[in-house]
Amino acid sequence: MIVYFFQVFVIRSYAQWKKTGQNPFVFSKSENAHDYIGFVFKIMTVISLSVIVLFSFFEDIYSAFLGPLTYMHLEVLKWTGTGILIASLIWTIVAQYQMSNSWRIGIDYEEKTTLVRVGIFKLSRNPVFLGVLLIYLGTFLIAPNAITLTLFVLCYFILQIQIRLEEEYLESTHGQDYIDYKKKVRRWI
């Protein structure tokens, strides 16, 4: 998961900034719903990475305070979670590459980007969000505890809100093209 976040957000953001000269992080500190979602995701990321560190290096603290679901500590679930993490990383990198200059973290209401409908976007209108959701699922399967379960469920609901905000923006920006695209391609997959 650490590799995932570093590759998908840090490296990709830096590459996007170098390529376009624009910061792809468009969340600000306002009180609107969009920026609040960005804030929640920052908190979720810090918590998730903290849980991974505790799970990996401080087993006593992990076991004592994070509510591990010990009945789920099975090798098959850990390997399944690892497979999901790897598949999610590849899926997300491909989706970001196919988005090219249209990729942002958040909604830039000032800018009109190209509507991407090729490649993975023929299968999912939100492949990057699907990748993010799967990363939280994979983490839960590897380190099943009350916090990773809560983060996975919270991620699902927060992404549902973010997707709807982006759909409103894309519909107002691209009009009938986006409406037609919504009819052909499902929200998740």
Structure characterization notes:
By secondary structure, the chain is an all-alpha fold. The protein has a single domain (32-184), classed as Four Helix Bundle (Hemerythrin (Met), subunit A), CATH 1.20.120. The chain is built from 7 helices and no strands. The chain has helices spanning 2-20, 33-57, 59-65, 75-99, 127-142, 146-174, 176-184. α1 runs parallel beside α4 (75-99). The mean pLDDT is 89.
Helices and strands in order, then pairings?
Blueprint: H1 2-20, H2 33-57, H3 59-65, H4 75-99, H5 127-142, H6 146-174, H7 176-184
Membrane topology: Multi-pass membrane protein
Transmembrane segments: 39-58, 79-99, 133-159
Pfam families: PEMT
